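Why does residue order matter? Because the sequence determines the fold. Keep that principle in mind as you read this record.
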Amino acid sequence: MTHLGVKTVALILNRLNLKIRRTTILDPHPGLVIASLHFQEPYPLVNEIDLLSLATMDLLIQFAYPSLSGYGKFSISFTMIRSYGEEISFTLGPAIPLTYEDGKFIPMAEVYAHISRLITKKALSFEERESTLSSIISAGLSEIEPITAREIRYRKGSYATHITALKPSRTKVKPFIVADIETLRCGDDEVHKPYAAGLMLVRPGERINDLPIETYFLQ
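Structure:
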């Protein structure tokens, strides 16, 4: 992680504000907030770690922290645009906690450090891949001998030919429910539509014939 001066941070924040096209926020259900930054061209590169880290932290300060009530965590997702226009979305590593187990806030500096470390790791993986590909291409093609691939043999699975007897068990058998739904085919598409349902509570040790069956019909 890099330690940034006040002037450097100000310059990065200014660049960030110029690159932002719009910000969106979704809250599909209580406890979940999906905040997104949409950049304009030229888009940030994955190795612009400080810019992306500050952008992520800014989203947390705007939308995540104000909505916290108890334990909270977040994950970072990027959408990359390939040179031929295809968009690829992926999540960077595991979720990062915003609070301790007791709900107290983790210092923002520590949260920022985790963000920067996660983005740095992803950036390095891209750089290593590009470096490997470049070294392969730079080496050029050489004379090689034909290689024959070994045949991969699969073991045939063994399956039981009969149902084995139940072994005695000390596990206490618990009551369970048996249910059934009756349907009718309706319409030209013959869609199955339920018209009746029945259920029975089975209690181990009681005769099934003596147990009541509850039935429900569609009116």
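The longest helix spans residues 108-139.
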